[in-house]
Amino acid sequence: MKIYSIETGNFRLDGGAMFGVVPKSIWQKTNPADNNNMIPMSMRCMLIEDGNRLTLVDTGMGNKQSDKFFGYYYLFGDFTLDKSLAKYGFHRDDITDVFLTHLHFDHCGGAIEIDKTGYQPAFKNARFWSNERHWNWAVNPNAREKASFLKENILPIEESGQLNFVHRNTKDQVGFDVLFMDGHTEKQMLPKIRYQGKTIVFMADLLPTVGHIPLPYVMGYDTRPLQTLKEKEAFLKVAADSEYYLFLEHDAHNEVCTVKHTEKGVRLKESYKFTDIFN
């Protein structure tokens, strides 16, 4: 098995929305904002090469939305999915599996592209993986999440015949274990992978950045913030005890981190570039 960190682009989101009830005077110490109160965010994906399977975990935002849409998110930097795949000698047609942690546009937008015939899967040779409860949640969105679940990102996956649902015994289906979380959205999925003698957990939106490690630092975007609080507490205790390496999808500055127990609770131990730990 080989794992690669895949940068698909950077954007900005409102810092207050990203930290919920935590005051700016506190969160800006770890996540400094610009003059518009926006903080930089990554859309970092993971590529898993395992035998004949090449699995991409999440896809970033993609590039098919309108200029007006992208204008809300202040895209910046030179990263793209295709350039990052090419860096390691791959093309999107090589991808055999696309595992979507959840169907918010910044995680799945790159799964679908548009051409003269309409919306099409961007990975024509891949199986797309979601789970039935989250899929039903996304195609029948509540008013709070409706702006994040874009039909053009979701329905073409099913229409293509490439959609698959994982079940509880995920290792047999996708090759790794999955942790299910319900605080951010219904049945978000976090890949848990044993690699080079270490355990990596792809954190998706349970832990967007290292600045979100303290328990009350919960995003305003979460549909069930108290559930997130419980899920974070339980997970971070295990992560500290078991020395997990936490792969950060949205942290623009830190790719991977570890955590430790302190008198104030679980806190950051160290942060790393992915290639500093995994060769």
Key terms:
alpha/beta, globular, single chain, six-stranded mixed sheet, 30% strand, 279 residues, 14 strands
What this model shows, in words?
The protein has helices at residues 15-19, 24-27, 67-71, 81-87, 105-108, 132-139, 151-159, 170-174, 225-242, 274-277, and strands spanning 2-14, 38-50, 53-57, 97-99, 112-115, 118-121, 127-130, 163-165, 177-181, 188-195, 198-202, 245-247, 256-262, 265-272. The chain has ten helices and 14 strands. The model has no long low-confidence stretch (mean pLDDT 96). It is globular. A hairpin with an 8-residue loop joins strand 12 and strand 13. The protein is α/β, with parallel strands linked by helices and 279 residues long.
Unreliable residue stretches: none
Order of strands, main sheet, comes to 1-2-3-4-7-8
Counting DSSP H or I runs of 4 or more residues, the number of helices is: 10
Structural class: alpha/beta
The major beta sheet can be summarized as: 6 strands, mixed
Number of strands: 14
- What is the share of helical residues? 10-25%
Give the distance, in angstroms, between the N- and C-terminal Cα atoms: 11 Å
H/E series: EHHEEHHEHEEEHHEHEEEHEEEH
Rg estimate, integer Å? 18 Å
Instruction: Compute the average pLDDT.
Output: 96
Shape: globular
Strand content: 25-35%
